Predict the structure.
Amino acid sequence: DQQVKQNSPSLSVQEGRISILNCDYTNSMFDYFLWYKKYPAEGPTFLISISSIKDKNEDGRFTVFLNKSAKHLSLHIVPSQPGDSAVYFCAASSLGANSKLTFGKGITLSVRP
Amino acid sequence: NAGVTQTPKFRVLKTGQSMTLLCAQDMNHEYMYWYRQDPGMGLRLIHYSVGEGTTAKGEVPDGYNVSRLKKQNFLLGLESAAPSQTSVYFCASSSLGASGGGGTQYFGPGTRLTVL
């Protein structure tokens, strides 16, 4: 049973436009969410995170929105740049003894020049 | 700082052979993790460690063993490789556990393993 879902496997946007990457989760115990970015032949790198006590977190061109009632989060990239072309993973963790992250399957973003 | 390094970068094994993947981190992190990434499957946790001398099973532990004899190293072993273990393996470390957003995980560059 997949607890973190990234239902769209790919997204293509024009340079300068907004990229919106979506993520849904089913486990109501999740209280912290992260986005990782991965280039080919490299390991994932941390991009941005959000705690469940917030509904928005911003870092430069990247903003993550959290809708707890809908169990949905999204990553907005504005403006999109060709260098943003990568695979983006959504991940979640929960309080308690769990020291682990649960990852989604990833979304491949292509930004066209 | 080198961060998280993985050895080797590539390996080809025959079915039934054994091997050990080495992960090393120089950030003095307590927590270390082994993941595998397969097409369309995202990152799946194999085993993890919350400190030197400890290990725990993740989501897909079967066919793998791990050891954390030194804080900076986390070894992943395949005793009898199978074609189903063909994958890209990533090691990660963090200063704190993921609970409540405790620790950002830093990943190594990956090991691409092919089992024939």
